């Protein structure tokens, strides 16, 4: 049995996916917090209101953009 197939049979591929997903969710949380911290001028530049930014920042971590689920 090769090293690659042995690691795959141990489920290591899945653990790397879990790690990647965890880092993606952490990045999403940081991004949402940064959005909530934008000043009114920056929000106006991207076409959002303060309420839009707060609503997005308040979404739970598992509530990800639809294109992530494809």
Protein model, in words:
The protein is mostly helical and 70 residues long. The protein has a domain at 22-62. 66% of the residues lie in helices and 0% in strands. Helix 2 packs antiparallel against helix 4 (50-57). The longest helix is centred in the middle third of the chain and has 25 residues, at 12-36. The protein is elongated and about 40 Å long. The two termini are 33 Å apart. The model is unreliable at 1-12 (pLDDT under 50). InterPro entries: YjiS-like. Pfam families: YjiS-like. This is YjiS-like domain-containing protein. It comes from Pseudooceanicola batsensis (strain ATCC BAA-863 / DSM 15984 / KCTC 12145 / HTCC2597).
Share in helix? 55-70%
Radius of gyration: 18 Å
N to C succession of SSEs:
HHHH
The low-confidence runs, each spanning 5 or more residues with pLDDT under 50, are 1-12
> Major β-sheet, in short?
none
N- to C-terminal separation? Answer: 33 Å
Helix/strand class: mainly alpha
* Record field, number of beta strands: 0
The rough form would be described as: elongated
Percent of residues in beta strands:
under 5%
Average pLDDT: 80
Number of helices: 4
Protein name: YjiS-like domain-containing protein
Pfam family, one: YjiS-like
InterPro entries: YjiS-like
Quick tags:
70 residues, mainly alpha, 4 helices, disordered N terminus
Give a quick rundown of the structure:
This is YjiS-like domain-containing protein. The chain is mostly helical.
Helix and strand topology:
Elements: H1 3-9, H2 12-36, H3 40-45, H4 50-57
Helix pairs in contact: 2-4
């Amino acid at each position: 049995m090769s090293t690659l197939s042995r690691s795959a049979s141990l489920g290591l591929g899945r653990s790397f996916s879990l790690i990647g997903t965890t880092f993606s969710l952490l990045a999403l949380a940081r991004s949402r917090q940064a959005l909530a911290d934008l000043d009114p001028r920056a929000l106006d530049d991207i076409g959002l209101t303060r309420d839009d930014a707060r609503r997005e920042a308040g979404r739970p971590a598992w509530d990800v953009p639809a294109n992530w689920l494809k």
